[in-house]
Amino acid sequence: MLLQTEQKKIESELIYNYVIPIVIGLIMLFILYRLAKVFQFYYVSYFKKPVYTHTYFKLNKLTPVQHSILKKEYSFFKKLSDKHQRYFEHRVATFIKKTKFIGRDDLVVTDEMKVLVAGTSTMLTYGYSKYLLEIIKTVIIYPKAYYSHINKTYHKGETNPQMKAIVFSWEDFKHGYKIGDDNLNLGIHEFGHALHLNATVNNDASSLMFKHGFNRLMTYLQHNKTIRENLIASKYFRAYAYTNHYEFFAVLLENFIETPTEFKAQFPELYRYMKQMVNYKFTGY
């Protein structure tokens, strides 16, 4: 009986001294996390920019091979400070970990493919606190342009929100990075669509920031006929941009990433809206 009483006493002390404080601490952390998200949302609503962008409990890492690919292939990564390179690597590693990669037509998905695709998404969402796009859960890669039985034509890439997938011809994806200043980049273009579509179906702070910037951009163009005429006359943006507003943003994003100095010089107001939409505060932008 004495042993049982002593055991109950020890159990009670453990519960009161350790278990209860840990549970309360976890609850408080969760409450603070939720309050921070709410505060971020309303801050973005008012100031059109986030309070914070990078908050991590633990930084994920790429394998040595994947990290060497990132350092070698991504000029954007090289421009970042050491701290932000660690953040960028974490986001790339998280994308790879949480996304399913599928090769078609006997294509074997390699580390290079994973890193370059994940790096493109990370580059475009690097100014956001919520950087993983909910509408992209799968990346499908073909060796070359592939035939679509839906619209009976060959595609180089597409974004399919119903399937939560983004699709690339690897030949054309790689070609987009061979010349870094021709404003033709399949990866940026398709992830631009994904970014746009993701914002239209979500109400988080990052999506709100995108939608506000895009609405301001479109309103600016609607009220400035001369600017619209100058856009077309300049031929700085390829003609495909004027297909619809989704293509317009995707093409603008290609130009913004690849030739920011020229973009800013020719169309400073459009550049400012684009910069706000993606929250870019980096060297060269």
Automatic annotation (TrEMBL):
InterPro entries: MetalloPept_cat_dom_sf, MtfA_fam, MtfA_N
Keyword entries, A-Z: Membrane, Transmembrane, Transmembrane helix
Record's protein name: Zinc-dependent peptidase
Organism encoding this protein: Winogradskyella damuponensis
PANTHER family tied to this protein: MTFA PEPTIDASE (PTHR30164), PROTEIN MTFA (PTHR30164:SF2)
Classification via Pfam families: Peptidase_M90 (PF06167)
Membrane spanning residue stretches: 15-36
